[in-house]
């Protein structure tokens, strides 16, 4: 059975992929914030722990979203390289955000 014609248009799929990425990232960030608030008392350690967990979440979410979006168009090593880049940038942004606003 051929797929529905709407799945052939990439523009239609972007909102769904964005919502998938937002939901996965939000769940990971909430879990990271809960873990850090529950187990870490020192402010500096809490900020660094949250930055590590938040960036790890963003990097891990990149892998399935890129795999769904790009399929076989890119090698898995390219997907991992993109996930590492996201992890690095997110770490810096989370450290800056927690410095200004604290751990959520």
UniProtKB/TrEMBL annotation:
<keyword id="KW-0812">Transmembrane</keyword>
<feature type="transmembrane region" description="Helical">
    <location>
        <begin position="12"/>
        <end position="36"/>
    </location>
</feature>
<feature type="transmembrane region" description="Helical">
    <location>
        <begin position="48"/>
        <end position="74"/>
    </location>
</feature>
<keyword id="KW-0472">Membrane</keyword>
<protein>
    <recommendedName>
        <fullName>DUF2306 domain-containing protein</fullName>
    </recommendedName>
</protein>
<feature type="transmembrane region" description="Helical">
    <location>
        <begin position="80"/>
        <end position="103"/>
    </location>
</feature>
<keyword id="KW-1133">Transmembrane helix</keyword>
């Amino acid at each position: 059975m051929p797929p529905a014609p709407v799945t052939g248009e990439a523009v239609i799929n972007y909102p769904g992929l964005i919502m998938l990425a937002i939901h996965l990232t939000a769940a990971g960030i909430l879990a990271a914030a809960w873990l850090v608030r529950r187990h870490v008392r020192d402010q500096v350690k809490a900020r660094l722990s949250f930055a590590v967990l938040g960036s790890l979440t963003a990097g891990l979410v990149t892998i399935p979203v890129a795999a769904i979006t790009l399929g076989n168009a890119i090698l898995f090593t390219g997907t991992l390289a993109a996930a590492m880049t996201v992890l690095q940038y997110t770490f810096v942004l989370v450290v800056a955000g927690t410095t200004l606003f604290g751990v959520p």
